[in-house]
Structure formats: structure tokens, C-alpha cells
Amino acid sequence: MAKVILHEADKRGHVNHGWLNTWHSFSFASWYDPAKVHFGMLRVLNDDTVAAGSGFGKHPHDNMEIITVVIDGALEHKDSMGHTQAIQPNEVQVMSAGTGILHSEYNHNPHKPVSLFQIWIFPDKKMVEPRYDQRLFPEADRNNKLQMLVSPIDNNDEGLKIHQQAWIYRTSLSKGNSVNSTLHSKNHGCYIFVIEGQIMVDGKTLNRRDALGIYDTDSVVITAEEQSDVLVLEVPMQ
């Protein structure tokens, strides 16, 4: 029988710094919950809103696969590899931090906040050469189907590449429609996060910003109770 972990939106960690309003699905910075340290190889899923004209100053990362999904507004990224790029809605950025990088992330719009999700996944190789990629994923390509955003670097699947046997999808489901995510391995699990809307998974109703982790299963069916925008993250559990 499948094992299920429910993470309700209002049970996440929450800190409002003024310039940054952030919700943590997993233990992060000063917020710690021993029951929410990670889900398999998924270490961080932060729901961030950065105020107009504010941002994260230059800071280091190493040995982590970092994925950024912008929902609204634009986030400007600068890093020690020489990249300076704005990440717009429907765009996804990946960084393999590897041996180490420095980067900053800023909202240069003086009037509008930027909303984004930042995801950290443990890599399956350490001390790799840092790398960066970014791509636009059109909204039309995820209507009532799974749109692959991220996939392992050693296969030919679509999506931006990371150093882990992990896949990230996004789907926009109309009311009454379903998608079926078939896992690539019996040792994998799925973490399903509702950006907007209401869905049904494994007999459980999930609302905006709720999440459900499920493992010891071959596939997961997601059904929209209303128009919904959903992230689906498949990761090794060990």
C-alpha cells in the first residue's frame, strides 16, 4: 500500500522579513521541524515573494541542484560564472552548484513584487563543475498534461538537466481532468504541490499551497476539483 505524507499550507514554516515573505515546506534557515527535513532527495521547496526593489545579496552554494520557477514578476540573477539574466513567468532556471558558486537574485521592478518557488534537490554526484541553464516553458504545453521541466542529465528526456535521477513537471488542469504520473523506479516517490486550485490525490483533497508526498507506489493520479496549477516532483527516496 502506498505511503502518504500530507503537508497542509498553513503548517509550513513562515517568516516575513518585510523585503521577503517566505513559506518553507521543509526545515530551512531558522525554521526547523524534525518531521519536515526533506522528502527523499527533495531538500527545499520555498514559496517566496520578494518586495519591489529588493533581493538576495551575493551568497554561496555548493553540492546542490537548485531550481527556480517564477510565477509572477521577474527575478534578475547574477552569478560567479558570468551569467546575468532575468527569469520571467513560465521560465525555469537550474543551477548545479557543484564545487561552488556565488550568486545574487534581485527584483529590480520598483513597483511590483516577484513570486517564485525555489527548489533544492540533493545531487547524485558531488564536486561537479558548476553549470547553469534557463528555458521558457509555454503555458499551452501543460494544459491537461504533464509538462516536463527538469530531468536527469544522463538521459534524453525533455527538460533542463540536473545531477539526480529526478523529474519535475508542471500541469494546468481544468476541472474534472486528470493526469497520471508513472514513476521511473519503485524506489522513487512523488511530491505534489498545488500552486493554485484544488485537486484530489489518493482520495485526499489538496487546496492552494497544500502538498502531498506519496511513495511505495507505481503511479499517481491527480484530478482537478477546479482549475488548478500543480507542480509534480519525482525524486529518489534514498
The CATH architecture can be given as Sandwich
The coarse silhouette is globular
Radius of gyration: 17 Å
Provide the low-confidence segments as ranges: none
- Largest sheet strand order: 1-20-17-22-15-13-14
Main beta-sheet strand count, sense and barrel state: 7 strands, mixed
Instruction: Please count the beta strands (DSSP E, at least 2 residues each).
Output: 22
What is the helix fraction of residues, given as a range?
A: under 10%
Instruction: Give me the secondary-structure category.
Output: mainly beta
CATH superfamily: Jelly Rolls
CATH topology: Jelly Rolls
Mean of residue pLDDT values: 96
* Distance separating the two termini: 19 Å
**How many domains?**
1
Question: What are the salient characteristics of this protein?
Answer:
single chain, 238 residues, mainly beta, Jelly Rolls, 0% helix
Summarize the structure.
The protein has 238 residues and is mainly beta.
Structure description:
By secondary structure, the chain is mainly beta. The protein has one domain: Jelly Rolls (Sandwich), CATH 2.60.120. Helix content is 0%, strand content 54%. It is built from no helices and 22 strands. The strands form four sheets. Strands 1-20-17-22-15-13-14 form a seven-stranded mixed β-sheet, with no helix packed on it. A seven-stranded antiparallel β-sheet has the order 2-3-4-11-6-9-12, with no helix packed on it.
